[in-house]
Amino acid sequence: MSKGFTYILECSDASFYTGSTIDLEKRFVEHQEGKGANHTRKRLPVKLVYFEEFQRIDDAFYREKQIQGWSREKKILLIKRRHDELPKLSECKNESHHKNDFDSAQSIEMNLKSENKDDGNDFDSAQPPVKTSRSNLDDVNRYYSNGKLLLTGEYLVLDGANSLAIPTKFGQDLIVNKIKESSLIWESFDELGNCWFEAEFRLPDLRIVTETFDADTDNSKETLAITLQKILLEAKTVNPKFLNDAFGYHIKTNLTFPRNWGLGTSSTLIHNIASWASVDAFQLLNNSFGGSGYDIACAQNDTPILYQLENKIPVIEKVNFNPSFSDQLYFVHLNVKQNSKVGIEKYKESATEKAALINRVSEITNEIVACNSIVDFEKLLKEHEQLISEVIGNKPIQEIVFKDYFGQTKSLGAWGGDFILATGNENTPQYFKEKGFETVIPYNKMIL
Q: What is the pLDDT of residues 188-206, one digit of tens each?
């Protein structure tokens, strides 16, 4: 896991912003250019006044959550590195203390400024400190979901084909931090620690605070907020007690894979929300996005599984799929994001008789799980490609792009995008990179 930094920025209105990142210099520049969090974007310029370095980014994040719960005066003592004075400010403050906190913060700022005028961390006494009500209540919960890949049965899994699904080493977490304000504050971060989405919802009705979006530039983010709102409302429908207490929440999600990889940005989110809300993840998926549910099964399992829908009910069987030739398997990212809904509609419209096809693909799945020969494995992949090709009316990717490849390839997910599986050898990465496909991941580095 990457190293991490916890940092504190002083904004133009003298308020503090506490964050965490894996690249402090880059993140600071983003804040300064108005590409950071909504709070700093509206209070430029900002100044870096404090940071700590950690060996792991999740440690940096937990430190961020701790500091965010501190009073302003305690943050100032931290910035000035007056650590011996921090313990006396550690007791929990209730609402009756707020005015005293505010006044003492003003006083200590003035004293600190007079003590050291040349350290680069001076505060402008002409601008009053901003008091925030988002106090940490020291109640943090973390949920994690695995990413997914479907090795067999794409499309046909919707109609009951027995399919081989594998959870990945990459995934997404969701960290829930209680706050006193009656809001749900949401921040989503990519694998580089960059905030790619943020929104605020009023509780308990989850009304979107539209003022957090720039009308000229944030249309797509507002659409995402509406989608997220729908998922959360569905979770509340299933569990009326969810988000119906005296607290607010600050949520942070962290991906460990690029969003365009297609490993389950949405499915890992739905599974994490379901875990948080104590509802069934498959039911939440059906009520919001829809789909076969194999991705939800991968999110909650740490081994390869056989996945099948029987009368629309998921049947999950853990299997020992650890091929002896795994060092000859690679995942190659095509870097072309496909809309799986389009592919599914095309599949549903196909006039091909599917019963025999589903039976044969189910047999191929079982044969692949038991396969001990790379030659037999390649034959099964090729047959599977041909069967799916006939039902959706698309040529296999190898016939279109990789005719001269020395191994066998197989599309995964929506054909034409995301990852393919390739058999090969030590020359495989070079072959695909020469074709312009830079992301080539060995099987054992992708799969749990």
A: 999 888 889 999 999 999 9
Beta strands at 329-333 and 419-423: parallel, antiparallel or unpaired: antiparallel
For 4-115, CATH number out of 3.40.1000, 2.40.30, 3.30.2310, 3.40.1440 equals 3.40.1440
Output the CA angle 128-132-138, nearest 5 degrees: 140
Q: How far apart are CA 272 and CA 152, in angstroms?
A: 25
CATH 3.30.70.890 range(s) for the chain read 326-446
Q: What is d(CA 11, CA 110) in angstroms, rounded to the nearest whole number?
A: 17
Distance of CA 435 to the CA centre of its chain: 29
Please state, in angstroms and as integers, the Cα–Cα distance from residue 106 to each residue in 254, 378, 390, following that order.
Answer: 35, 71, 73
CA diameter of the chain:
83
If pLDDT is split at 50, 70 and 90, which confidence band does 230 have?
Answer: very high
Which of 6-10, 60-64, 188-192, 320-324 comes out lowest in average pLDDT?
A: 60-64
Residue-wise pLDDT tens digits, 85-129: 877 665 444 333 333 333 333 333 334 333 333 333 322 222 222
d(CA 382, CA 409): 8
pLDDT at 13 over 60: yes
Nearest Cα neighbor of 401 from 339, 337, 342, 332 is 332
Dist CA 180 CA 135 (whole Å)? 6
CATH 3.30.230.10 domain span(s) along the chain: 140-318
3-state secondary structure of 381: helix
Extended strands (E) in 374-423: 409-411, 419-423
pLDDT at 277: 96
Distances (CA, A) of 424 to 38, 330, 376, 405, 411: 47, 7, 14, 9, 15
Q: What is the mean pLDDT of the chain?
A: 83
> Which helix (H) or strand (E) segment is 101 a member of?
helix 98-115
Q: What pLDDT sits at residue 342?
A: 59
Asked if residues 145 and 172 have their Cβ atoms less than 8 Å apart, the reply is: yes
Separation between Cα atoms, residue 366 and residue 163, nearest integer Å: 8
CATH number of 140-318: 3.30.230.10
Instruction: List b or e across 3-12, with b for residues whose CB sees 16 or more CB atoms inside 10 angstroms.
Output: ebbbbbbbbe
List, for residues 124-175, the tens digit of each pLDDT value. 222 222 223 333 444 678 999 999 999 999 889 999 999 999 999 999 999 9
Classified by CATH at the fold level, domain 326-446 comes out as Alpha-Beta Plaits (3.30.70)
Q: How far apart are CA 25 and CA 192, in angstroms?
A: 13
pTM listed for this prediction: 0.70
